[in-house]
Amino acid sequence: MMTAAIEMKGLRKAFGQHNVLDGIDLSVPAGSIFALLGPNGAGKTTIINILSTLVTPDSGSVRVAGHDITEKESVKRSISLTGQFAAVDEVLTAEENLRMIGRLSGLTKAEARIRAAELLEIFDLTASARKRVKTFSGGMRRRLDLALSLVVNRPILFLDEPTTGLDAQSRRALWDHIRQLARNGVTVFLTTQYLEEADQLADAIAVIAGGRVVAEGTADQLKSRIGGEVVELRDQQDEIIREIPAGSSIREVKKTIDELVLTAPEGSRINIRRPSMEDVFVALTTQEREESAI
Amino acid sequence: MIAQIKPAQSASVGATHAVFIQRSILHSVRNTEALIMAIMLPIMLMLLFTYVFGGALDPGGNYVNYVVPGIILLCAGFGSSSAAVDVAGDMTNGIIDRFRTMPIRSMSVIVGHVIASLARNLVATAVVFGLALLVGFRPSAGFVEWLAAVGVITLFILAITWLYAAIGLVAGSPSAASGYGFALLFLPYLSSAFVPTHTMPAWLRGVADNQPITPIIETIRGLLTGSPIHDSAYWAVGWCALILAGSYLWASWSFHRKAGRR
Ligand SMILES: Nc1ncnc2c1ncn2[C@@H]1O[C@H](COP(=O)(O)OP(=O)(O)OP(=O)(O)O)[C@@H](O)[C@H]1O
Ligand SMILES: [Mg+2]
Questions:
Q1: B66, B58 Cβ separation under 8 angstroms
Q2: Within chain A, which residues score under 50 in pLDDT?
């Protein structure tokens, strides 16, 4: 068995003058959940489009499920995609959409009908199964879109911002579903703007900015990169005034607090916590921005 | 709950086509406005040409026998033009990306639109014939002539639908597609469809005699009413085959060119 489900080496892509991807190296082990983070316009969707054969890269070697990306037909047999923007047929009903994709995925009519019913249930769409998608709310459309890419399980699943627009309950349900897929051996490659999502779900995370990978590792590894504790300064209404990365030793934390005592307004409080993914993300991507601004 | 992992499975070419044809027919049936237009237009044109223009163009009342082939082609052109809008709609909607990332011949989605358009237009053609018989159309054709006439009409619809599908593929949006398609709808007026070309000024006659619609019209008219066909039949089939092959190639080239670039 191969160990890397997805492998990119020196991946480059420019749109006109704009170098969107400027040498990306990433490797995703089979059966893991991988999260790609980055600010808007960083090239997350572009990477997913390249991996799913929709966009041709300018250079670099890309392998998906053991096939070079130029062997499109073999790659397509191994992948399933939910893109950033809904890919549903608005004229058809939810059920018709699911059955159509089922038939196109090689299920018989009966299998496609059964699978459609199962997915409608899982994604809480049974009540709207016979309504045209045109009349769906944004979240319902998104859930159908996700269901469509799960009609048959391919070894690799791409999800571009899968939980954007979902309510908290649907989001949790999708997370559970993704974990279950990974347990069954599906490799999940997702992008997200919700850092908590990457934290909760992903075995490995990569952050891209300015066309390059600026950090890679598990959530814990990334958090430890920006050092130790974060001191939060809060006012009397418990609103955060400042967050100060404070190092990891007691001495460093005490020094930070001593300085705060002199400058903080009367009546403010502090709170010491471990850094969140958000701290990591802001630190990594602003650093990149500052560098590219010079 | 989880279906078994089936990496290599995919639909057969036959099943893929069947699914896309069914999809496009559902689209056609549910697009009520377009459907009403596709049925109303033949009725209105038929009545307009027979009762409003007919008296002036042929006081003997025989104009209906002359004009039926023209109305059929005019309606077929109009009916097929919605293929451009449908195709452009699909290409600008996210659904095409889903089809493209599946292990199927994704060009079949276009074939689905073409076949649905063919079915729609054959129904509209039947409506024209039915109405024409009601307002006094008296064809002299026997069974073989009818069969041949329907064959030529089918070939024409197929050719022009592929042309519209190609236009839909290169147009940036459904409304642009409908705009480009509109120009083609004037071709029947510059042919022998509504008046014999010898009544036109010489320069226009040169255009009318040598454009594809004229031999197609003359062939259908000859088959149905027994007017002389001469070599029009060869020209008609030749033009249709040429348009069909050219449009098919143009469409598949545009479809695949867009594939790696979006
Ligand atoms: N087809 C295209 N033509 C020209 N530029 C493009 C094209 N597709 C993407 N871009 C540019 O490439 C950059 C990266 O886009 P991409 O959609 O990959 O970003 P992203 O990381 O997914 O952003 P977001 O978080 O907003 O979804 C953007 O600057 C975008 O303008
Ligand atoms: Mg994106």
A1: yes
A2: 1-2, 294
Taking an 8 Å cut-off on Cβ atoms, the answer to whether A81 and B98 are in contact is yes
**For chain A, what's the residue count?**
294
Q: What is the pLDDT of residues A201-214, one digit of tens each?
A: 999 999 998 899 98
Residue with tokens 């630190």: A283
Pocket test for ligand 1, best of A13, A15, A164 (most atoms within 8 A of CB): A15
Q: Using a 6 Å cutoff on CB, does residue A149 contact ligand 1? A: no
Q: Are residues A145 and A284 in the same domain?
A: no
Number of other CB atoms surrounding residue A201 within 10 Å:
23
Measured from the Cα of A44, ligand 1's closest atom is 21
Which single residue is written with the structure tokens 């089922």? A102
Q: Rounded to whole angstroms, how far apart are CA atoms A215 and B166?
A: 46
Tell me if the pTM is above 0.90: no
Residue B2 pLDDT grade (very low, low, confident, very high; cuts 50, 70, 90): very low
Task: Tell me if A115 and B3 make a contact (CB, 8 A cut-off).
Answer: yes
Q: Is B1 helix (H, G, I), strand (E, B) or coil?
A: coil
Ligand 1 closest atom vs CA A47: 18
Quick one: A215 and A255 in the same domain? no
- Please indicate, yes or no, whether residues A79 and A164 belong to a single structural domain of this protein: yes
Q: Which domain holds residue A282?
A: 226-293
Among residues A162, A194, A223, which one ends one of the domains? A223
Give the nearest chain A residue to B108 (CA atoms): A104
What value of ipTM does the predicted structure carry? 0.86
Residue A60 belongs to a domain with what CATH number? 3.40.50.300
The pLDDT of residue A294: 47
Residue in chain B lying closest to A82 (CA): B98
Mean pLDDT over the full length of chain B = 87
Same domain, A98 and A234: no
Considering the domain architecture, whether residues A233 and A289 belong to the same structural domain is answered as yes
Q: Is A43 in the pocket of ligand 1 (CB under 6 A)?
A: yes
Residue among A118, A168, A101 nearest A139 (CA):
A168
